[in-house]
Amino acid sequence: DAGVTQSPTHLIKTRGQQVTLRCSPKSGHDTVSWYQQALGQGPQFIFQYYEEEERQRGNFPDRFSGHQFPNYSSELNVNALLLGDSALYLCASRRGTAHNQPQHFGDGTRLSIL
Amino acid sequence: GESVGLHLPTLSVQEGDNSIINCAYSNSASDYFIWYKQESGKGPQFIIDIRSNMDKRQGQRVTVLLNKTVKHLSLQIAATQPGDSAVYFCADPAPNSGYALNFGKGTSLLVTP
Question: Is the pLDDT of residue B89 over 60?
Answer without folding.
Answer: yes
